């Protein structure tokens, strides 16, 4: 079942540390850029994913051409692509050796068949929500930096 309760979303956003933002834009006025920068500023390790900008920076963060190129395990995939691209992003997510625990799609992005498939594979699913908005509405504190 897609996670929609405030408690479920609070638990997800409090537990994840690494987030891949699929469809991150180099344009600072685009929501995907703003959200990636916001999440990084809140203490998450953010990995922008954009095939046309791999090896470059988006929001001051090294960008990867695919999820498979991200150099460390991802806790959450945040999809900033149109709904028709969600199945392909899910396929890429499920192909990862270290599968993320959370598959999240942004406001206006929904694919119920992909949600069911992701849940069947053991992923928590949040669709048609924005983590930036949820963090603000839930009053979540900034994450502490990783020890080390």
Report on this structure.
The chain is built from 5 helices and 7 strands; from the N terminus they run αβαββββαβαβα. By secondary structure, the protein is an alpha/beta fold. It has a single domain, classed as NAD(P)-binding Rossmann-like Domain (Rossmann fold), CATH 3.40.50.720. The strands form 2 sheets. Strands 2-1-5-6-7 form a 5-stranded parallel β-sheet, sandwiched between helices. It has a two-stranded antiparallel ribbon with strand order 3-4. A hairpin with a 2-residue loop joins strand 3 (57-58) and strand 4 (61-62). The longest helix has 11 residues, at 31-41. It comes from Methylopila turkensis. This is CoA-binding protein. Pfam families: CoA_binding_2 (PF13380). Residues 13-109 form the CoA-binding domain.
């Amino acid at each position: 079942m897609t996670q929609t309760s405030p408690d479920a979303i609070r638990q997800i956003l409090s537990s994840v540390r690494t987030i891949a933002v699929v469809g991150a834009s180099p344009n600072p006025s685009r929501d995907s850029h703003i959200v990636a920068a916001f999440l990084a500023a809140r203490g998450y390790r953010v990995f922008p994913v954009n095939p046309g900008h791999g090896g470059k920076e988006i929001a001051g963060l090294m960008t990867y051409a695919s999820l498979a190129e991200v150099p460390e395990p991802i806790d959450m995939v945040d999809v900033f692509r149109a709904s028709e691209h969600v199945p392909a992003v899910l396929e890429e997510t499920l192909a990862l050796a270290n599968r993320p625990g959370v598959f999240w799609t942004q406001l206006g992005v929904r694919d119920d068949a992909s949600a069911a498939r992701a849940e069947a594979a053991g992923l928590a699913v949040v669709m048609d929500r924005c983590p930036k908005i949820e963090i603000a509405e839930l009053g979540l504190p900034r994450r502490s930096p990783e020890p080390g």
